[in-house]
Amino acid sequence: MENYKISEDGKTLLWINPSYIDVEIPYGVTTIGSRAFNNCRSLSNVIIPNSVTKIEEKAFSSCLFIREINIPNSVTEIQYGTFAHCINLKNVNILGSPMIEDSAFDSCFNLYTVNMPNVSEIGNDVFVNCYIISNIKSKIIEENLIYAFYSEKEYYNYLRRNREYKLKILDEGL
Questions:
Q1: What's the whole-model pTM score?
Q2: Beta strands at 77-78 and 54-55: parallel, antiparallel or unpaired
């Protein structure tokens, strides 16, 4: 059985063996293809190199055991549903300033912290069904974050959790 498939030009990762637990994407790959890691139900750790500039639609959807993802500053585009249904994803670090398309983190039920200090463009429903998200670090104006959630109710619940998170940090003296 093949372990992975890369396009003939060596630029796009097309498919990865779904039984892998840890993956380091080869340097030189510029695109993680649509559904390349889709349903890799054993995957828990992935290293994305600085050569990657685009993560295509649903590239990591339904990767059940990924807990943290670090997206390098080279990435300029995170497409629709990229991490949808990664139900155990807890922390996301986006170092650059990519455009994050609609539903990128849809139904990441355990997503708690998103660090994206340089991101200024975000699609609709990016955090739909992310019920415990409490901390989003971003330069996006808070009023514009409302569109990243499915409804005003989800957004206001996030604001409440975020306020509680900040109070907890103050109480603990961190």
A1: 0.86
A2: parallel
